Amino acid sequence: MGSRDHVVMSRLTGAWLVLMLIFSVIGLFASSVVIYTYYYLRELPPLCTAFKSPFPGITIDCERVLSSKYSDIGGVPLDLLAAIWFVVNIILVIMYDLGPVNLVSLSINTLFYWRFLGIVIVPYLIFTETYLLHALCIYCTVMHAMIIIDFTIITIFFTRVRGKTIGHS
After folding, report:
1. Residue 46 phi, psi (nearest 5)
2. For the chain, N or C: smaller number of CB within 10 Å?
3. Local structure of residue 135 (DSSP, 8 states)
4. Is residue 31 part of a domain?
5. CB neighbours of 94 closer than 8 A, spacing ≥ 6?
6. Is 66 part of a structural domain of the chain?
7. pLDDT single digits (tens) 116-159
8. pTM here?
9. How far apart are CA 113 and CA 124, in angstroms?
10. What is the CATH number of the domain that holds 93?
């Protein structure tokens, strides 16, 4: 084995790496703010006071959303599940970009299905906030947007970039 066998080569260009990671980092930050302030400090996160939203009949009210019966699954806060979801996203991107060759296909395919799982759940969460609670949580909305953007990016990656390299890797 030569010394070149141990050199880790990036599979993503700088732009794709940033696109694949940045929105998960933002989502992780939003979920972490809620976990720390609401569940640890027992305070409302910053910017979460109740006020009217631009949508009729809906207020911006994190407390209503975070304290509702819909805010957890079996006692596990959805914000914690979101943080885990974003961390797994980040790990899978890094595994695809820098991981061993035998994990490349597994990590990128898992990333696609993992992000698909996120995009499937978002409509339920938006429905719950807007129609059942008539309230939006700013941080939850940021997380929803990041999940939608993450899925859009992986879909574009699969159709434009990865599709061109199938058979050449």
Report:
1. -55, 145
2. N
3. E
4. yes
5. none
6. yes
7. 999 999 999 999 999 999 999 999 999 999 999 999 999 998 88
8. 0.87
9. 18
10. 1.20.1440.130
What is the distance between the alpha carbons of residues 84 and 87, in angstroms, rounded to a whole number? 5
| Enclosing domain of residue 20 | 11-159
Residue-wise pLDDT tens digits, 15-46: 999 999 999 999 999 999 999 999 999 999 99
Q: Which residues of the chain form beta strands (DSSP E)?
A: 51-52, 59-60, 72-73, 76-77, 135-136
Cα within 13 Å of Cα(24), Cβ side: 25
Q: Is residue 38 part of a domain?
A: yes
Domain count within the chain: 1
DSSP string, 92-122: HHHHHHHS-HHHHHHHHHHHHHHHHHHHHHH
SS3 52: strand
d(CA 106, CA 86): 18
